[in-house]
Amino acid sequence: MEVQGPAKLLPQEDPPIDESELSPVEEVRLTVPNTDDPNLPVWTFRMWTLGLVSCALLSFLNQFFSYRRQPLVITQITVLVATLPLGRLMASVLPTAKFRLPGLGGRELSLNPGPFNMKEHVLISIFANAGCAFGNGSAYAVGIVNIIKAFYGRSISFGAAWILIITTQVLGYGWAGLLRKYVVEPAHMWWPSTLVQISLFRTLHEKETEEDKAGYKVSRAKFFVIAMVISFLWYLVPGYLFQSLSSISWVCWAFPNSVMAQQIGSGLNGLGVGALTLDWSAVASFLLSPLICPFFAILNVFVGFALIMYVVIPIAYWGLNSYNAKTFPIFSSDLFTAQGQEYNITLIVNKNFQLDEVEYAKLGRIHLSMFFTLTYGFGFATIASTLSHVALFYGREIYDRYRASSEGKEDIHTKLMRNYKDIPQWWFYILLGVTIIVSLILCIVLKKDVQMPWWGLLFAAALAFIFTLPISIITATTNQTPGLNIITEYIMGVILPGHPIANVCFKTYGYMSMAQAISFLSDFKLGHYMKIPPRSMFLVQFIGTIIAGTINLGVAWWLLDSIHNICHKNLLPANSPWTCPGDRVFFDASVIWGLVGPKRIFGSEGNYGALNWFFLGGLLGPVVVWLLHKSFPKQSWISLINLPVLLGATAVMPPATALNYNSWIIMGTIFNFFVFRYRKRWWQRYNYILSAALDAGVAFMAVFIYFAFGMEDRNLHWWGSNPDVDPEHCGLATCPTEKGISVDGCPVF
């Protein structure tokens, strides 16, 4: 049912395009069509039905998966592929009769206004993007609810949690609305990531030639269904029947009594040498599907991962024993005492949900595993190197593009968008004002739930607003997005130590509102290129965000209350998938930056003060590369050294593991190097379809397994799947190797 659209314009021949109106960016000229049909229906019954269902389904599935050992993220690509045949089916079966509804001014409506078109499809994908929290899986603020209820064992009201989740996301929309004219309308702000989506839309919608079909009897829709069914059926094997196939760590099997061998061979708790998987969720978790990542990016990640995992870590752990590394596991996101025991955080939290300094003094300083330690170091270096790398290698381009965007004439895309009613600025002012007021009420009236003082909210909002414009310009021109997460938690940890929830709330308002703004602007640029009415874009994003956040919270509340000992891997059955690896790291961050505070970890009262030098190293590293590039301009390979990518290659480790990286790199290389090079037509026709089908099949089977077997605790009891046995069979990989350290289940050296 079409309920909104631009004013009908008379069909006319496309006028010749003035060369000066073409996009100044070659990639845009090659990818984005320069024409538009403003008569295409947009707000149709098909769009609303498929969009709302997609948003609800993705938000449910992604929140469900977020607690699992392999938290697969179902992205909008899956919906983009799946909804095309559904949209065309609805266009073929729904009645075309027109009717009127009272109160709509006599406007004629129809459940089927014509063929399913690309603009409807774009809006459905925007709904889906909100459902997957713009690629993050679930709303970031749900992590705060998880650590309060599951890790700290405290409570937060449902109302406070809902306000926190919605306001942290919607606040970014306000920033984005104010900055739209600076980073969306200008032609030089070209947002490279949107071009991949546009290419896929055009591939799916534009009519195939006989040459395209030659040699391929299976249509894309049929291929999707076949691949999804196979993926669905196969996941029953690693997901339930034979769980050891999720991490085939044969080195552990060959050396069942060797701690070092299992540290080297474990894919989940070690270096993952030789570890393989037959589980798609292990391949696509954390790093998303490797089939949609270009090979050059996979290669950069491989180089950075290999250097850190197979050079730096072994030297630091076995060679130098840095920070008494052998006292702790080689790879772990847990926090430890000086004696190698897991740190009991609940003992150092007082009844006011703050640090109990007396108990902390008794238990002693917090210690980290070697990998977790270096993760923070490389995180510091990545932030600093991103700033200097972008300034040196892209600074002139960013400056020129920004100056051109403010001075240049409109390109063809901006000119065509003038056919549609723009969004009034007062919409954004009201949204921003209401969001800040509601957030202040949360911080004042419900402070016991969130700990954050009212000034903390205003400070976080100011930080986000200040950084949103420069970082969105960087993203729009280079496709690199520096994050504020470590900076925001560091700042609040210094200002207000001892308050863990205040710290993560400050980080979420400061970091996520900026990230949401950039995601919003990126989607708006996609709509700009695809000629989607701006008001339609805004309302779909806003409605999708509210729906997704609400469903995220509902699913979280349900699982946290229904799964006994969720997120506590030491208390769960050995083969339980409900280990919450992402929330574990989020909890650790709340302890390190909020509860204990950076001064007691990275400052004068902590063990890891030397890691602050990584900031300086990261800042200076790109300067060295840039000087070498200028000194030896004929050596083109020097300019390909991207230190932010190399240093940030392991940014999601932990919670990601060596198994995730190894399998992701292998699968990505097979499809985006070998298949792309030697079977390019097959790759072009089926690659993205296969990725979407694999994701969808695994997602639906995982939910089926939980409802069919998990809720009733129906388990198998054999070597490959046993609730009492680690399915990887690498139990010694988490053991320390320092002499005299005694840990349950581990030999003493």
Main traits of this protein?
two-stranded antiparallel ribbon, 59% helix, mainly alpha, single chain, 749 residues, disordered N terminus
Give a verbal description of the structure:
The protein has 28 helices and four strands. By secondary structure, it is an all-alpha fold. Residues about 1-15 have low confidence and may be disordered. The protein has helices spanning about 25-30, 45-65, 75-95, 120-130, 140-150, 160-185, 195-205, 210-215, 220-235, 235-240, 250-255, 260-265, 280-285, 295-320, 355-365, 370-405, 410-415, 425-445, 445-450, 455-480, 485-495, 500-530, 535-560, 580-595, 615-630, 645, 660-680, 680-710, and strands at about 100, 110, 335, 365-370. A hairpin with a 7-residue loop joins strand 1 (about 100) and strand 2. A two-stranded antiparallel sheet has the order 1-2.
Q: Which class do the helix and strand fractions yield?
A: mainly alpha
Number of helices: 28
Question: End-to-end distance, in Å?
Answer: 72 Å
Overall pLDDT: 88
Q: Please tell me what the overall shape is.
A: globular
For the sheet with most strands, the description reads: 2 strands, antiparallel
Over the alpha carbons, how many angstroms does the gyration radius reach? 26 Å
Uncertain segments: 1-14
Helical percentage? 55-70%
The count of DSSP E runs of length 2 or more, i.e. the number of strands, is 4
Write out the strand line-up for the largest beta sheet, numbering strands in chain order.
Answer: 1-2
How large is the share of residues in beta strands?
under 5%
